[in-house]
Amino acid sequence: MNKKMTLIALAVSALINTGCAVSNQNASSNAQVSTAAVEVYGTQTPFASEAVYFVMTDRFVDGDPSNNYENQGGEYSTWQRPLIGPNGEKAYVGYMGGDLKGILNNAEYIADMGFTAVWMTPVHDNPDYAFNGDEPITYGGAFKDGGKTGYHGYWATNFYKADEHIVSQDLTVKAYTDQMRNHGLKSVFDIVANHGSPSFTMETDLPGYGEIYDAKGKLVADHQNLAPEDLDPENNPLHRFFHNYPDLVKLSNLDDENPEVRDYLINSYLYWISQGADGFRIDTIRHVPHSFWREMSDRIRAQHPDFFMFGESFQYDANFIAQHTLPKNGGVSVLDFPMQKAMVEVFEKPLESDFSTLEEVLFLTHGPYNNPYDLTTFYDNHDMARINATDNGFINAHNWLFTARGIPVIYQGSEIGFMRGTSEHQGNRNYFGQDNIDAAPAHPIYQKLRNIANVRKTTPALQRGLQVNLAFEGHSAAFYRILQHEDINQIALVLLNKGSEPKAFTIDQFMQQGEWVEQLSGDTQTVDSQAQLSTTVEANGVEVWVLNDQIKHPALLNTVVSQMARQ
Fold first, then answer.
1. Domain stops at, among 460, 494, 525
2. Which of 283, 333, 433, 522 is the most exposed place for a label (fewest CB within 10 A)?
3. Which residue, 48, 52, 42, is CA-closest to 481?
């Protein structure tokens, strides 16, 4: 019997021995249940305590103008490269100057907002020219690479080398991660396994494109500007890193079945851990077979047992993306795309939507995921249109993200509604900049985000606690987050109101006697033998009431034991 089942058995035994009427959800909380041996949690994964701020490094802040290389690329310049929209709008496909120093200079800004980790786009070296193959990308276009550069980091030519645009003479990647920890911020590195750079259809074969170098700078693979079906891996050693069929646009399709490729990639991941990576976000995880991720996971966790990884499987089918989370497939968490879709539906038009839409994608019991509490939750990112919400829509989305199950991830600029509603080549990835950061504290989205994110930061039940839903209906939602693990005994009651008018709540279900403290206002309520908590939540508001005590309400204990058994 595993640990969780042993604890559940102990809880059931405790309930039986006390003779409590656990089937009555309104049973009096006066009945004392011995719960000292009962652990209650959603997850024990250490990384679940984090909140992640996602930075597209080149588009965040230019902290070191000396690494901009504005004249790089000659005829195929890599600097800025604007795309012009029909009304003069601009999006950019060249470098804009952001770097690691720009992130580090704003570490306190990120930490003060309530975040504890920064996910940054890949640090890998990318080609030094704009791509001269494929069809030209245009404003608002997609799935074309002509005229673009590797500013985003996903077109690696050397998976072991940092790109010259993001490091500085006095700031290596290792120095960056060390100094970020001094600000209480972990570093999540973005890694890729299925592709390198665009590799064919070039007018002339530009250096870097289709090429892969090893840790010593030796050329180990070269597509040679050939179409995949024209590669000859049997006779040309430089072709052996690639499949001879395409996958995504004109990107090289790495042969994940080749042991040499697997070693090259997995050893590069281990190298970046040595440079300070605290976690990995895995790009395009579904384009590589489970066997690769199982091998990678086994090798990494043999050296780093608690190392956290989450993948991007851009699918809205929970049963499909959940396969990556299973131990047999590497036990890699995933970005919660089903939740993302539901969040857009609910918070883009909060006055026309129902909170029950979100309840449907929580999968708290009988779900497909190995553990739904380990999922990374988000409402948009750099690969999709930013959420097209009002300020109140953002505020309500953040109130949900930082209280419900999962690990919240926020894309840079969302704290001020930056470029809302725009896709990748319409401004989604435009340069954020120091001026926006300096002005952000005056923005209402920022202020409310900072409030709720810091509540999560100091409330363990919101990080790892079991979620017990009470009511999801219309503009309001109510649920508990409960953590009873080691030396922490905490019950948090979350009340959400996305409506335009104040909402009165009276909670008596599972309500336990004691001194409850509301975490945003500091208000207190002493719940007595009548066992109910009453409050009014402001429009577009949230309240988090916390009781620091073990579960003593018999019906609540019965519910959490049953729910954990079905998780």
1. 460
2. 522
3. 42
Beta partners for residue 485, in sequence order = 488
- CA 567, CA 564: separation in Å to the nearest integer? 5
Q: For residue range 464-502, list pLDDT tens digits in order.
A: 999 999 999 999 999 999 999 999 999 999 999 999 999
One domain for residues 509 and 546: yes
* Whether 531 and 443 share a structural domain: no
**410 within domain boundaries:** yes
Lowest-pLDDT range of 7-11, 194-198, 441-445: 7-11
Gap between the Cα atoms of 455 and 463, Å rounded: 10
From the list 296, 362, 285, 287, the residue with the least C-alpha distance to 324 is 285
Closest CA to 450 of 535, 502, 520, 382: 520
Read off the pLDDT of residues 316-373 as tens digits, 9 standing for 90 and up.
999 999 999 999 999 999 999 999 999 999 999 999 999 999 999 999 999 999 999 9
- Collapsing DSSP to helix, strand or coil, 535 comes out as strand
User: Is 23 part of any domain?
Assistant: no
**Residue 43 domain-assigned (yes or no):** no
Element (DSSP H or E) covering residue 264: helix 259-274
Q: Which DSSP state fits 84?
A: E
* 99 vs 175: CA distance, rounded Å: 13
